[in-house]
């Protein structure tokens, strides 16, 4: 179970719809038309970053969590007032719920911007303390906890958005907003995304020099589902060079929206683990000289080439 957070919806986030300009710089015509401010089509959405391991992306995940969100107060049905009390129109905004404030747009240039009324906090009405609902204290909403569960399909992409419709905060007179989970793939210690290949992964593997020359048959790595991936390279079939890349088809991440249950591939990039100096000192010179590899040709005309005896040191 993922106990994600407590009280995660009270503050909200993003734009709240108030920072639009009121018809230019002199106050727009929709302000002078009177009446309360226009209600949004639904409550604001809440975006929640959600981290997933690559193992979870590979297999999919069932999420169970507890949400805490605002819901219309059942004691006053969203009016904020006690029974029998009618809220009075806010005198500062004249019931509109918003006022114009000056905003500096540039040196010497001031414009008008709509903001929620500071006296009524955008409600358009005001109540004295003794007139407020005992349950919500005039806020018109109450906190509600709810347990939700949902499935995240295997192969969900990094940056994908998953919406739980109507599970966000409620506001009076408008439907509840949505909770939107923004998926983020966590870095993996072994696998990386393969560029320009949807669903494909790459992994860097180290093999011994003897395996590069003579082949191998063993488990090379543990896959994201926990299984061991056994690969065979036969002696004489190929010599693996450092930087060689092999492809394992259909073992990558699921590709959503594709026909059938198609997956990407896994690209294995090899690096060669060479023996250390101690090993080299124990070997006979004849055996090492016979190892394959062509010596570089030197210039033939020695009279035209100046040779210098220099020293070089390894840097890693």
From TrEMBL:
A Pfam family reported for this protein in Swiss-Prot or TrEMBL: DnaJ_C
One example of a Gene Ontology biological process annotation: protein folding
Superkingdom per UniProt: Eukaryota
Gene Ontology molecular function: Hsp70 protein binding; unfolded protein binding; zinc ion binding
Zinc fingers typed CR-type, residue spans: 60-145
Chain ranges of the CR-type domain: 60-145
Metal-binding in keyword set: yes
Keyword Repeat among record annotations: yes
UniProt entry keywords in alphabetical sequence: Metal-binding, Repeat, Zinc, Zinc-finger
PANTHER family according to UniProt: DNAJ-LIKE-2, ISOFORM A-RELATED
Identification of the protein by name: CR-type domain-containing protein
Source species: Cryptococcus amylolentus CBS 6039
